[in-house]
Inverse folding.
């Protein structure tokens, strides 16, 4: 029989999961585990949390390395600045990230879930260690954490959620503003305070209570696994050929002694021996747990290991295959487009607009057009601009501001008036406005049409009139 191309569906009666067959939730209290993967994961969690805390503190060209200033709709990423007009670039950045994730998943399975997803990093790096510290071992926690300790535990959860929420908010309001808000009464910044309370509440509810349910029932990436993985993707898997028939150590049994240690350490409550399941977040806890048992039994490690489904069947894993090639092409194409789009992005925006109202005025023997230059500095620093107007001979230009300084991510409207005496008017013509950024030497020409018409001369009172026939 050919092997299935999708994740195996397990009979509800044998499947173990945090979700029971009637849809109710089974509370999971995973046992502690130590081992090489757990040690490396802790290192990765500390690094990622450290980077996450540091990014709003590290200045790049006078701004935080990552600052999503929602108030002015400006975004600063490692010295690059973007505003609302650059939203199209965001599409390529997100598309590049999406295809990177898809490509990584086809090769490495759910490595993102187990090692780098914020849900895993905060849960396993902050909240679960607090639970173990206050509540004790799994057996103690299963009996129920006594009242006073439970209060301490939840106070620590709330404080941790608050800390995570504050750092999260600093990405959107900047650290100086956050510190200033923290020193003042909430009534002086009710909106930010409400956001902080809401985010703290969401983080507390998620990390103290919802936990693995987020991965199992809510995360869209988790739902996509059956599409993204194939038989050659790296997964955390059980070597059935070697382990079965499971049972007490004997000459007729395989290497699995059915100790269920891999089940009790699993944060989503599944039994990996049932095969690859959507609930598996590839956390590697069952690898460490089983390796510990194998060492005690003096058997080779790796009964549960990182391998592909092909590898677990004893076949060769195909790293290069049509889907990995296709995903790699999309990923590289998205990255190249995003790179060149970011490089060709202009450091300022300039548009010449006709002022509302009549397109031109005709007074005292001259035609006049009124425009304004809408100038936006997209850089993360202030810039000086010089403006000049190029128009046909005979036309006069009045521009109150020929040079202007614009602060980072700010905009200004500059009026421009162009007029021509009737005698010199020779029809519609182009008015070219030249803008030069003095610092970057970037320049731009933008053109608008000069409109007008000379009124026919009014009939003179002394002019002879034709006799009536
Ligand atoms: S930990 Fe290893 S030996 Fe124990 S039940 Fe799981 S697979 Fe079998
Ligand atoms: S099956 Fe293993 S890798 Fe998957 S979530 Fe459970 S413990 Fe983690």
């Amino acid at each position: 029989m050919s092997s299935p191309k999708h994740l195996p569906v397990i009979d509800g009666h044998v499947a173990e999961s945090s979700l029971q067959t009637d849809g109710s939730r089974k509370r999971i209290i995973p046992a502690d585990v130590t081992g090489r993967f757990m040690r490396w994961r802790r290192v990765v969690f500390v690094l990622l949390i450290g980077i996450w805390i540091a990014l709003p503190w590290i200045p790049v060209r006078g701004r935080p390395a990552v600052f999503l200033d929602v108030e002015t709709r400006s975004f600063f990423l490692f010295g690059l600045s973007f505003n609302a007009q650059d939203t199209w670039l965001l599409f390529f950045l997100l598309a590049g990230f999406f295809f990177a994730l898809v490509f990584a998943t086809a090769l490495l399975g759910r490595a993102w879930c187990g090692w780098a997803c914020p849900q895993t990093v905060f849960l396993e790096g902050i909240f679960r260690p607090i639970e173990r510290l206050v509540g004790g071992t799994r057996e103690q926690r299963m009996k129920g954490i006594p009242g006073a300790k439970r209060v301490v535990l939840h106070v620590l959860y709330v404080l941790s959620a608050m800390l995570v929420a504050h750092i999260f908010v600093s990405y959107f309001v900047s650290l100086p503003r956050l510190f200033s808000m923290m020193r003042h009464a909430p009534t002086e910044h009710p909106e930010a305070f409400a956001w902080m309370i809401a985010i703290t509440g969401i983080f507390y509810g998620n990390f103290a209570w919802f936990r693995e349910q987020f991965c199992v029932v809510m995360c869209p990436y988790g739902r996509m696994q059956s599409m993204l993985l194939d038989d050659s993707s790296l997964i955390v898997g059980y070597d059935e050929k070697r382990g079965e028939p499971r049972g007490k150590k004997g000459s007729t049994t395989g290497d699995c002694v059915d100790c269920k240690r891999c089940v009790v350490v699993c944060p989503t409550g599944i039994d990996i021996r049932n095969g690859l399941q959507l609930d598996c977040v590839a956390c590697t806890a069952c690898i460490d747990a089983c390796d510990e048992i194998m060492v005690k039994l003096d058997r080779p490690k790796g009964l549960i290991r990182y391998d592909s489904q092909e590898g677990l069947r004893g076949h060769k894993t195909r790293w290069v295959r049509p889907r990995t090639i296709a995903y790699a092409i999309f990923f590289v194409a998205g990255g190249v487009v995003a790179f060149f789009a970011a490089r060709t992005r202009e450091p300022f925006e300039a548009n010449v607009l006709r002022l509302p109202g009549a397109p031109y005025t005709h007074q005292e023997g001259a035609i006049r057009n009124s425009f304004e230059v809408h100038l936006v500095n997209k850089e993360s620093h202030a810039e000086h601009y010089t403006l000049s107007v190029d128009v046909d001979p005979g036309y006069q230009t009045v521009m109150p501001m020929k040079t202007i300084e614009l602060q980072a991510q700010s905009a200004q409207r500059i009026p421009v008036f162009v007029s021509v005496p009737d005698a010199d008017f020779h029809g519609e013509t182009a008015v070219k406005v030249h803008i030069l950024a003095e610092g970057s030497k970037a320049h731009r020409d933008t053109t608008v049409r000069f409109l007008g018409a000379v009124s026919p001369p009014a009939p003179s009172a002394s002019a002879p009139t034709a006799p009536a026939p």
In short: The chain is about 40% helix and 20% strand. The CA atoms of residues 384 and 405 lie 4 Å apart. Residues 236, 265-268, 270, 272, 280-286 surround iron/sulfur cluster (ligand 2) (CB under 6 Å). The two ends are 109 Å apart (CA to CA).
